[in-house]
Amino acid sequence: MAEKENDLSRRKIITLTTIAAGAIAGVGASIPFIASLKPSEKARAAGAPVAVNPTLIQPGMLLTIEWRGKPIWVMRRTQSMLTSLEKNNDFLTDPQSEVPLQPDYAKNVSRSIKGDILVLVGVCTHLGCSWVLIGMGVFIAHVMGQNLI
Questions:
Q1: What's 109's DSSP letter?
Q2: Parallel, antiparallel, or unpaired for β 130-135 and 138-143?
Q3: Which of 16, 23, 104, 142 is deepest in the core (most CB within 10 A)?
Q4: Per-residue pLDDT tens digits for 103-124
């Protein structure tokens, strides 16, 4: 009987030791795997914030910058552009920003913190084309080197 109790206590020790070794090996194996999930320096640099000084942009001027390989448009709107915003309410699904998709600071006519500053991602969601400004308020679609009119 004493020998059987000795075997049971020995079996518990071996089982607990095996579980502990397996847990340590599992943690050791998961560290490189988890480290490989971190974005590379190149990926972090591509998604880094881009700073623009809006005071350097003249009214009516469009500034195009690149962020994550996409064109970002920053425009300072003129007073006539701001007054014409309400004329387009018939074309908007939610002109008063009542659907909770907009953050609180964008629940206004200009949908921005500062009404005269407009920031847009300049890529079409349909074809992936990028629009090119050819005149004051006149854009043409540009897809893979081809202009679409």
A1: T
A2: antiparallel
A3: 142
A4: 888 788 888 888 888 888 888 7
Instruction: Answer whether 66's CB lies under 8 Å from 46's CB.
Output: no
How many Å apart are CA 39 and CA 3, to the nearest integer? 57
- More confident: 97 or 137: 97
For the chain, helix, strand, coil in percent to 5 are 40, 25, 35
Q: What is the largest CA-CA distance in the chain?
A: 98
Nearest C-alpha neighbor of 118 from the set 131, 128, 109: 109
Instruction: Give the chain's mean pLDDT.
Output: 79
CA dihedral 100, 104, 109, 115 (to 10 degrees): -140
What beta strand segments (E) does 16-129 contain? 62-67, 70-76, 117-121
Sheet holding 117-121, edge to edge: 62-67, 70-76, 117-121
Confidence (pTM): 0.57
> Which residues sit opposite 72 in a β-bridge?
65, 121
Q: Which CATH number fits domain 46-148: 2.102.10, 3.40.1620, 2.30.110, 2.60.40?
A: 2.102.10
